[in-house]
Amino acid sequence: MHVDITAETRLLLIGMPGGELRLAATMAREAGAEVIMADQPDAALNILRGASVGLVMIDVMADVAGFVAQLRRERFVVPVIACGIDAPAERAVAAIRGGARDYVPLPSDRMMIAAALAIAATPPATRVVGNHPAFLKAIDYAGAIAPGSLPVSIVGETGTGRALLARAIHVASGRSGPFLAVECNGTASVMVEAELFGHRPGDLAGVPTGRLGKLDEARGGTLFVRDIDRLAPETQGRLMLALMDDRAGFRLIVSSACDLATLVPTGDFRADLAARQSTARIDLPPLRDRAGDIALLAPHLAERTARIEGGAVRPVDAAAVALLGDYPWPGNVRELEDVMRRAVILARGPAIGREDLVLVDGTRMLAIARPQEAGVDGLVGRTVEDVERALILRTLERCRGNRTSASGILGISVRTMRNKLRIFVEAGIPVAPAA
Ligand SMILES: Nc1ncnc2c1ncn2[C@@H]1O[C@H](COP(=O)(O)OP(=O)(O)OP(=O)(O)O)[C@@H](O)[C@H]1O
């Protein structure tokens, strides 16, 4: 089972009292997992109003759709997974249609259920792997500023390990409070506001109850705001006001795709918030710029998934590492992690080999590998313009339409890239849609 539970790990389980699920949850809790239990969706909502939860698991026989609808009404952003023991397939389908992110069939053995719940409620590993000089510089700096409460911004492309580093800073800081995360990218601003600031009873139409915001809940701990460059201007203002209050009592770490200062002149980001948050800025390099780290990361990620999700722990052979090093990784370490998760399942031999490496759409990495011998000779006879166009389109395709990653690989600005693509489109040449 893989669930991206961002930074929080507290698991809320909704299951009938006396049922197998509840008994297993008690066992998982006794073994040290952070599991909160509720008998009914209503009781679960009450818990959510007062405490942050990273993941909700709900018995598929409960009213999943009704529960998810109420979560939306109250603007909660939390993944909901339906689960059941020998449940009929229609219930699972209905749960997904009702808004559950996934359905997880649980084993019938109570010990096994307890183990599955314990995994879901285990904090993600904070081991940070890599030894490229630019990466080490970032890690050393993070270690140096971890103690205390200096505001930190972590700048890097998606999947470069920004959340992992934020958590590592929190752990190294020794702060006793919780580590809580708020996601800005792809989350409606009303939802982000509710997550950050909570609301009082009656503030939301049709919702008589109030709810605690993460700003209050993070007291004594760390609040991690992911992709803060996507935060709406009004919310930036509210956040800045809250931060000016001396009693805030939490450390704010943010991640963004670019240096916040560069967004100030265009009016996309508040100057005061950018300045405050840039007290310490850590730049995480994209994976393609530290391809040497793949030799360390690939086996680490394969072993981690094998241990968490089950599967044999196999080494990664040298040819596979070479093939991985040849790919541009638009999704960075997260994408590599996903490739290794599939490889753990696919591998049959003594080691993970090239044939076990598959992209998200099922394309084998071997099939798209750059022919090593083609070289410049193969280009003789073609015009520079023609070769440039082919290179741009192919790189864009490999980056699945992501303009920023493709232009980074090509060493041109996003603006130049967009201009070129516009010219291609005008000439009737098909261009991969923006990711
Ligand atoms: N240097 C690293 N060592 C070990 N694991 C890593 C490293 N960098 C990233 N990971 C793993 O890769 C995955 C993605 O990392 P993370 O969530 O921190 O990325 P991110 O930059 O916050 O991106 P996004 O916002 O898209 O999630 C996580 O599972 C994380 O544990």
Automatic annotation (TrEMBL):
Modified residues (4-aspartylphosphate): D59
Residue ranges annotated for the Response regulatory domain, each copy included: 10-121
Assigned keywords, A-Z: ATP-binding, DNA-binding, Nucleotide-binding, Phosphoprotein, Transcription, Transcription regulation, Two-component regulatory system
Domain of life the protein comes from: Bacteria
Species: Sphingomonas mollis
Pfam families reported for this sequence: AAA_lid_14, HTH_8, Sigma54_activat
UniProt domain Sigma-54 factor interaction: residue ranges: 128-345
Keyword Manganese: no
Stored InterPro entries: AAA_lid_NorR, CheY-like_superfamily, Homeodomain-like_sf, HTH_Fis, P-loop_NTPase, Sig_transdc_resp-reg_receiver, Sigma_54_int
Protein name: Sigma-54-dependent Fis family transcriptional regulator
